[in-house]
UniProtKB/TrEMBL annotation:
GO function term, MF aspect, one: lytic endotransglycosylase activity
Keyword DNA-binding: no
GO cellular component, one term: cell outer membrane
Annotated TM spans: none
Cited InterPro entries: RlpA (IPR034718), RlpA-like_DPBB (IPR009009), RlpA-like_sf (IPR036908), RplA (IPR012997), SPOR-like_dom (IPR007730), SPOR-like_sf (IPR036680)
GO biological process: cell wall organization; peptidoglycan metabolic process
Pfam families xref list: DPBB_1, SPOR
Keyword tags: Cell wall biogenesis/degradation, Lipoprotein, Lyase, Signal
The keyword Transmembrane helix is assigned to this record: no
Domain SPOR: 215-297
This protein's name: Endolytic peptidoglycan transglycosylase RlpA
Length: 300
């Protein structure tokens, strides 16, 4: 939008300038306006610009860390893009390593999610926050690394296909899936060790054909659509939902200091993917404040 507006304004002003000269075009007077428009256009393009949406986890879908599979190292050629000898970001020059062999470093890991989901990575691929990938300032693209969370000893293998993080205290930016697997998604950052993997020498660890689940939990999953201090408001929303979907709609009352809170929920569901799709459908129909909840017991 901003780029199109800037182009149109510039085209019209240059036409007037060519026909009538600087004075008739009001060039000196309009220069600040042009600069402002171009600045807005630049901000709309910038991945980390002021006009960007706030980053974070996906709005509805949640991942189970025990179900997330590591990236599988394989021999790949260097990417055509993202591997210059050096590059400059925010006035600082970074040098790309010619090889990842022997790379081991400890520092702080962060992660990035839905704000960049679907955008282009430094090596020309599309960022998928559900894939086991990461961003690194100097390792050649792609590089496979093993990341160990030094606080909880969880480990994950990720494929580096992007550049970043451009923060002096951080050494790697994890995808959302990798952050969940390592237990970093909730804390935002964590102390980690990053160790490069040589795919030619890497051996896939043996796993049982039917591994035992790490957790024996069978939670009930609910989609909360609204919460009210008035039961009549909750009942009106319940009626709207029953006219829209065929799933059970419940109203639960939670005691409060002054008034009870009446929560309107759909469920329970066993299939998390179905709950996610239902949430997206309801959001598209204009239902707001949707939340996924795991509740062991609901009393009406």
């Amino acid at each position: 939008m901003f780029r199109s507006l800037a182009r149109n304004v510039m085209t019209n002003l240059l036409t007037v300038y060519r026909r009538y000269g600087c004075r008739r075009a009001g060039w000196d007077y309009l220069t600040p306006i042009i600069k402002s428009i171009l600045l807005l256009a630049a901000l709309s393009v910038a991945g980390c610009g002021l006009l960007s949406k706030q980053d974070g986890p996906p709005r509805f879908r949640r991942l189970n860390p025990d179900d997330i599979q590591d990236a599988v190292p394989r021999v790949e050629p260097k990417s055509r893009y993202g591997n210059p000898p050096s590059y400059v970001v925010f006035g600082k020059r970074y040098h790309v390593r010619s090889s990842s062999v022997g790379y081991v470093k400890r520092g702080i890991a962060s992660w990035y999610g839905r704000k960049f989901h679907g955008r282009r990575t430094s090596n020309g691929e599309t960022y998928d926050m559900y894939a086991m990938t990461a961003a690194h300032r100097s390792l050649p693209l792609p590089t496979y690394v093993q990341v160990t969370n030094l606080d909880n000893r969880r480990r994950a293998i990720v494929r580096v296909n992007d550049r970043g993080p451009f923060h002096s205290q951080r050494i790697i930016d994890l995808s959302y899936a990798a952050a969940v697997k390592l237990g970093v998604a909730r804390t935002g950052t964590a102390r980690v060790e990053v160790r490069a993997i040589d795919p030619r020498r890497w051996k896939k660890p043996w796993r049982a054909e039917h591994p035992v689940p790490a957790r024996e939990e069978h939670p009930n999953l609910y989609v909360q659509v609204g919460a009210f201090t008035s039961r009549s408001s909750a009942e009106r929303l319940q009626a709207r939902l029953r006219a829209t979907v065929n799933d059970p709609v419940r109203i639960t009352a939670t005691p409060g200091l002054e008034h009870a809170l009446y929560r309107v929920r759909l469920g329970p569901f066993i299939d998390a993917e179905y709950a996610n799709r239902l949430s997206e459908k309801l959001a598209g129909l204009g239902f707001g404040d949707l939340q996924l909840h795991t509740i062991s017991e609901i009393v009406e």
